[in-house]
Batch of 3 targets.
Target 1
Amino acid sequence: MLYYSKADVVAHQIDNDYARLDTGPIKKKDIAYNYQYALGEITVYKISGKDLKDYMEWAAGYFNSSRAGDVTVSFDKTRRASKYSTNDFFGGVKYEIDLTKPYGSRITNLRSIRTNKPIKMSDVMTLRMNAYRMEALQAKGGALEGRKFEQIWSSKQENAFGETGGTIRNLAITYLKEVKNGVYTPKVMHNWKITGVDLHSSEHKAVVDLVNKGILEIPKTEDGKYTNIASINTKDSITKEEIVALSQKANINPNQFKHIKTKGEFYKKLSRITKKYKL
């Protein structure tokens, strides 16, 4: 919430993978559905560029490393299935997450949106986030373990919005009513992106086609609750069992794939055949 905090950088965790806001009247239940932590507030801290970078590197650890042949992005299985969301993103800055780089060295091209200058480790800035998340980061084992930060402002202060009005949910309602005059038009910020994953090859397009048709599934946990726990890799070898299983799902004769060795080859040919027969 940059508008109310006036901070240089904002951090926010994604606690609902299925967040949505349909066209039409916005109701309180929509706000509650999209931000599910009822007591969450806005607190502003004074931090350094190094503190921000360390926090962002920890956040980027939510993603698995990529390798040659990966055509989908995937998430760390343990963090993905955790009771508490650790999937954090940042506003007020531009940055890239390079998944080919090792854990702790993935954040690249980190710049301030306000000044368009690179953020230095010695820079002093303000960070807006939820106090509960900050406490977790400062606790034992956290990305900012043992570090102390000056608290500049809290939305729950009596001279701000108070204990009730200062929650993120209520601030969102106030913002929509008083600032946006009840009309919200979404805008994609394009302030961050993932690099190091093939998203443009013919193999990637074939995988997208097969997933959209329900033939190929994104890897998920055994109970099916969490998806994207592993990347689809088109350079991996494919087994006869996999060819038969996917061919049957597509209602295609598996015998025409006898000499195929890799998943990429198979996915491309299967996609072409399904398009030919409009399956």
Target 2
Amino acid sequence: LDEIGDLPLALQVKLLKVIEESRFIPVGGLELKEVDVRIITATHHDLRQMVADGRFRADLYYRLNVVPIHIPALRERADEVQPLLQFYLAEFNQRYGRSLTWELEALDALTDYAWPGNIRELINLVERLVVTCIGETIELFDLPDEVRMVRHDGAGDVLLPLRKQVENLERRLIRKALVQHKTTREAAKALGLSQATLVQKKKRWEQG
């Protein structure tokens, strides 16, 4: 049962009864059914505090709290971020018929990110990148602003040459235009470039 802390008090009573009696009446049924199950629950709430506040039943809490396991937030397990990114990239590559790889700088930025949404946020982000990435490598500038800003904030006073910064910004804008528009002609028109110029820049980046 995921997010047991969100269970309304009325349903908490019913769950407690099932645990204590090992039987229940299915929805739409008339007869009691015996059950022999192990219940595993998860929550991001502090259930002990919820019990103190009267928002979670104490008797249900102690029934469930037999073998508690604390799993730290993803931000506290930075060494696990890159293996998870590689695992889900392989999974979504297979699902969508892609062969994407990670740029090292992108991996470093994702490792530094705090992941407020934990593993769900990571999975959703990897899937989005696999679907929207134009080239064969997921680069720093493919990442959402909130991820890249963390990387930039940690860069201290180290600055890239202006020419390189302009090139990076240009690449990012062209990549976004290519995602938003169906053809290079439409993307070039939206950016105020000729189609030949856009295609030339794109080829140069893909070649290295």
Target 3
Amino acid sequence: MIGRAKSLNVQAYDLISDAIIQSIIKRNEIYSEQ
């Protein structure tokens, strides 16, 4: 049970960090276009 919760937390962390990276890339692209 604990191991399963841990892997879910890792998946959520990966999704969140992916989303953060994507938003940073988008923001950089917007700034570089100006």
